[in-house]
Amino acid sequence: MAETELNKYGVAPGHPLPLGVRLTSDGVRLSVFSRNATAVNLLLYATPEDREPSREVALDPVVNRTGDIWHVKLTGAAAGLLFNWRADGPWEPGSGHRFNGRVALMDPCAQAVAGEYHWEIGQSLNGSRLGLPADMLPPKCLVVDNSFDWGRDRRPQTALEDSVIYEMHVRGFTRHESSGVDAPGTFLGVVEKIDYLRSLGITAVELLPVHEFNERELLRRNPLSGEKLKNYWGYSTVLFYAPNKGYAVGEERSGAAVREFKTMVRALHEAGIEVILDVVFNHSAEGDQTGPTLNFRGLDNSIYYILDETDRSRYKNFSGCGNTLNCNHPVVRGFIRNCLRYWVVEMHVDGFRFDLASILGRDSRGEMLVNPPLLESIAEDPILRHVKIIAEAWDAAGAYQVGSFPGKRWSEWNGRFRDDVRLFWRGARYGRNGLASRITGSSDIYTSSGKLPRNSINFLTSHDGFTLNDLVSYSRKHNEANGEDNRDGDNHNLSMNFGVEGPSDDPQVDRLRVRQLKSMLTTLLLSQGVPMLLAGDEFRRSQRGNNNAYCQDNEISWLDWDLAGSNNYLVEFTRRLIALRKAHPVFRRSSFFTGTDRDGDGRADIEWYEAAGGPVRWSVSRPCLACRLDGSAAETGAGRDDRDFYLMFNSGRRSHLFHLPEPGDGRSWRPVLDTAAEKGLPELHESEPLADQGLYDLKGHACAVLAAY
Hints:
By secondary structure, the chain is of the alpha/beta class. It has 16 helices and 29 strands.
């Protein structure tokens, strides 16, 4: 766009709402919030590389301001316009104000950006009035045309209890050369792998942050290779409305990131797969008082952040990332809700996972609220009412709300499931007590708040921590490549290496590891609640013992698709497990077990057994546990009868003989799976009755499932 063309645009008062950018038939309307600014200027650029604006429009506080919103219209302007803002006002850090009329600011509501990040966190002038070194500038905000041919796009609207979630990183999913896609590491690369996701049985992908962030913000290098480390995960949001331009292949000035994100969503919906976004509304990329001024800080620092009451030049840090957004301030609350609406209405996403969601329940001093208005407004908003909302129900300041996160509509990442199931399979004393609670939907932590099994998002691994393969291959973390002297990452991994730290050529070690993998996958996918699988766990992806690979944009983090071939037995095992879950409502109950007989057949909806038979003695620590699930419609609430299933678990090293109860009604027990078996899962209709209907020999580190036919 030529500089002369920018000068031809007419200037009109514009309109305060909606915030951000709105294309009209004859121009572009722009508006931005700032309560305490004394002057606001609109900066216009000819190219993304320009260091200085080609035109600067000073907004008249009488004509171009309504309340706390500054607004303007450029007649004749269109999509492709590049802009930023300047806001001047008091520089009074002790009072919470950090205005700087010399700094270019990105619009918090910008839907796309163009250009590179010419700055890095840590190189700002430590609280100086400049805020950023003069030779460092942010990208330009880009006006995009949001029109898109959605065709007959329909949201799958899969019930939570019927969902199988797959957590994945957009770049890491296809960036490795083995992915074989034409657009590796991008939204379109995901499209090329949809057939795999569908064949696996996934109903929803949960994407690590896809919002605009600066991957170059880290200053460290990998001490082992000298490689410059990057912000790979993206939990450092710069713009909450804009999809990350680094995940697009098209020309950024054309709005490729927006268009290609929509293309991905449309294709996933066609395959019956929902899209859940990991959103990071607990903090921003501006960091603490030493960080760069990008948008919020320069527009109204005292509104957007929780500041220290005794020294308002400093930030309260409940996120562990330098700052904390003031989420329950009415202005910030409105910003978050409108942003979520945008992603639902314009981008067609199906749900959100809220990072460190406990922060969303803190007030302006950081105290936990009893009835947080933000959480209630998200749950009850008429646009958001039917999307999935999932909380990471803790934060970095010690809040832990698993089982008590406010609001019945909120589901939660169940960290108790992860820990208790890991403990059991590691052979912990009394581990079976925790296992029993987790595989039945965690009623012990959800019943008192009126929640249901579907409120529990069950997971064993996630982006944060070991992969499943590393969980059975390493006894300790190996994060040396992160450049933090292995101090970063969780030390409480509850892992087990089976005698060898890392990869092993010993067939006996590998056999035990595979058995443990299968047993944990079975536990995850046949438990009540909603299972979440980490991408690549189904084919033994490894991060070489790194349990905090946030800065590893390389083969440590990328999925090696060759493993899907060499470990196809595990892919097929996972696929069949998911199919088994989907086929039988007894594994997807909408209500908790009661331990009572509601259909009059003489059997409770669930019955617990010792391996030797008879009721379980919970006060005794043993490695074995068994339970019978009644599949009658009256017990499952599924509207149709299902099979009865018998589940057996043995976390010990030795084999144990399990005494089987009578299947009843002239039926026989048939094997469905045994994780110690070399073969995969048989089809139920192909399975022959057990030769011995009274005993079952289950090897150590294994579980088995029988069905009554």
